[in-house]
Amino acid sequence: MTREDIIRELHKYFQISELVCVHTHSKWGERSWQFLDTAYLHNLLVIRRDILQTPMICNHGTQTQRGLRCNRCELVQQKNSVYLSSHILGKAGDFTVKGMTAEEARARIRSNAGMLPYPLRMEAGVNWLHFDVLTQYNVSQKVYEFKG
Fold this sequence. Notes:
Structural class: alpha+beta
Distance between the termini: 32 Å
Mean pLDDT: 94
Low-confidence stretches: none
Order of helices and strands: HHHHEHEHEEE
Number of helices: 6
Number of strands: 5
Strand content: 5-15%
Helix content: 25-40%
């Protein structure tokens, strides 16, 4: 599947404004797709379409920094030291999953890890589904859970 195919399929489930911060979307509009990592997008498609098979909500209402974050985002500006999160790199999203808890979503992803085209990390112990494709040094698991 090409990057263009992945984005075309994702359009069935997400608008780009849901996956990037308002600053990025205001400046780049539909071209904001260019800032999101292909492996992240491919995993997002498989998780939404094939594994969870239910709506997933990223940015909505007052929650506007759950996907790609730029240097103008408050969460980034509040940092007092180096901040290189997977959100800034276009490799992560935080989601609410319709009809299931975050732990139920994580369990379903774990049990279907073989369907994932790329390894991913999930944040454990939070009430949202965070996943990213940030490569971890010395970790070879297909699904790796970490505590934030």
